[in-house]
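Our preliminary data section would be incomplete without showing what the modeling component actually yields. Below, a chain of 373 amino acids is followed by its predicted structure, encoded as tokens that our downstream tools consume directly.
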Amino acid sequence: MKFTIDRADLLRALNHVHSVVERRNTIPILANVMLRAEKDSLALTTTDMDLEIVESVAAKSSAAGSTTVPAHTLYDIVRKLPDGCSVEISSAANDTTLQVKSGKSTFRLGCLSMEDFPKMGSSEKFSYSFSIPAADLRMLVDRTRFAISNEETRYYLNGIYLHAAENEGVAVLRAVATDGHRLARFEMPLPSGAKDMPGVIIPRKAINEIRKLIDEAGDSIEIGLSDNKLKFSFDHIALTTKLIDGTFPDYDRVIPKNNDKVLEVNPAIFASAVDRVSTISSEKSRAVKLTLSGKTMTLSANSPDSGSASEEIEVRFSAGPMEIGFNSAYLMDVAKQIEGEGCRISLSDPASPTIIQDVSDTSSLYVLMPMRV
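Predicted structure:
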């Protein structure tokens, strides 16, 4: 194998694929990136057995071939080469090393056999196939992933639940994430080809990896779904992930239907006030109390160690005086997702779930459990 490639092209591709590779691996081959050189392209593949990324990039090959080398080492080498240079990579047929040459720099990396490299998505048959605008997928991820649970014992909450649903008779593609304390739901018109698709749970790592790639994607992203895998494809990149094998809970049951006390507030002013007041709240609870009275909301926090804080902001509230407490970090996570100038908070009582929505955008809905303060 022998090929020459522009350093910038190789670095961009390695930047996309190397983050899949775990720093510590009990299986040596999983620390490697597979390089497959053909006439005018190079394909790079990495996997952790649950997730695989394949990217093709332009290269001038004088001898086709393939091998695997340590992904992080190759990435670090290419990253430290000067801008604007080209990189020559070669290996002999029976050689167990790969030579990386650029200018006066030469590196030799140990190779592992291609035969041991796992193959995930190449032979998979995808029963459902549909396309999503890149901007919509970006929004779907951003509006929900912050609520993914980190509790490994409840593994079925360690991802985003994606499924076809209906909202007031309109078919939608819906994404839901929850950690038991908060819930985030986002929906968009159901794409052609997604009708009757089963509900699937996309793992957190796959969500984070696709989010890194979306900003460089073209207009749309193709999605393929099989019984236990999901594939994102765009431009010259394909990301295939195993799905979480579990049953997502009936989230509709925790979304309250009769919250009739409506509070409206500017989300930017609200988030800033929460951020300031929460400086005093204890690290363990992060609790902030909201005291509602007429056209004002008083945010307050107390800590035995740090003291107390309060701030008053203007709001519109349709009910009588009320006090309710929330985790300040959860409040700010939700407020950051609201891009309009109005945030609607629908309340019932200090012990019941609260709904938060953007006044000008009903595609997203958030549910927060209150805290005792």
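Residues 7-17 form the longest helix (11 residues). The domain at 2-116 is CATH 3.10.150.10 (DNA Polymerase III; Chain A, domain 2). Preliminary results of this kind motivate Aim 1 of the renewal.
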